[in-house]
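Q: what sequence does this backbone want?
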């Protein structure tokens, strides 16, 4: 209800008595252990390359071990990095995977939750089992792995969750109903986690990419669960993955809570916030494939 959270309970950031918050410190990734899921391609692979150039020690995870080996070979000092194949839909295996990851270097400094699957189908044409599959990968897999790592981070009093969401974690578009819902859910969970665990030294950064030139659309699920198999024009014209990776790591180093990455499509988030009626009319005719 409107009275559930009285305004008086929240201090105004505009009040003259409010403290001036200091700029967040810049984190040096050199020597830090960074665990990346979805590291076999796209944004995850790009972050691996760029993070290795910054001196990070990497743990690379995805289902395809042979592809992970290729990504590691393209990183600076490949012998410094480790492979840990996993399937985020197998929730029962994730606590053991977290134990293995922690055993490598004794700690996980940054867990970058990047694995995910997209969607290219109308809500009315999408089978419920496809909706569930999207959530299992994009939401429940990320949450389960974060919960498996969280106790060790709390014990150390330090840790950083970096969650690759999407601009559709902030807005909804046609052909992305369950994908957008799963990304919205990530924001709800990890915003809450940030508020709960800040005193324990746990930080959370939500990354919201727009059109990035990866092959994510080829694997996007259609209504019956089969992959789309083709690229979207907007994705082909999107930002280079390495540039996206640079911006992601800049956000991590500066301990940003949330960052929008992309081109003009980022302004859709602001349009929805400030002119929601206009946004709703515009998005009906937006080119989304």
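A:
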């Amino acid at each position: 209800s409107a009275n559930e959270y009285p305004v008086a309970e929240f201090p105004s950031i505009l009040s003259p008595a409010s403290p001036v918050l200091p700029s967040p410190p810049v984190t040096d990734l050199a020597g830090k252990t960074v665990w990346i899921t979805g590291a076999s391609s796209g944004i995850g692979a790009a972050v691996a390359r760029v993070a290795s150039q910054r001196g990070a020690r990497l743990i690379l995870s995805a289902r395809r071990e042979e592809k992970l080996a290729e990504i590691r070979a393209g990183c600076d000092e490949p012998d410094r990095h480790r492979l840990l194949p996993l399937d985020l839909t197998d929730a029962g295996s994730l606590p053991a995977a977290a134990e293995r990851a922690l055993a490598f270097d004794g700690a996980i400094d940054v867990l970058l939750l990047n694995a995910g699957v997209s969607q290219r189908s109308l809500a009315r044409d999408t089978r419920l089992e496809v909706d569930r599959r999207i959530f299992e990968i994009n939401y429940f897999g990320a949450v389960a792995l974060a919960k498996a790592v969280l106790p060790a981070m709390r014990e150390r009093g330090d840790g950083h969750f970096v969650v690759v969401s999407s601009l559709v974690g902030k807005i909804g578009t046609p052909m992305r109903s369950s994908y957008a819902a799963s990304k919205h859910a990530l924001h709800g969970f990890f915003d809450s986690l940030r508020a709960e665990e800040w005193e324990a030294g746990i930080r959370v950064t939500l990354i919201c990419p727009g059109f990035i030139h990866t092959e994510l659309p080829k694997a996007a699920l259609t209504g019956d669960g089969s992959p789309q198999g083709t690229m979207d024009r907007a994705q082909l014209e999107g930002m280079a993955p390495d540039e996206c990776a640079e911006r992601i790591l800049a956000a991590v180093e500066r301990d940003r809570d949330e960052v929008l990455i992309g081109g003009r499509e980022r302004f859709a988030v602001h349009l929805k916030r400030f002119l929601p009626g206009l946004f709703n009319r515009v998005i009906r005719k937006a080119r989304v494939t």
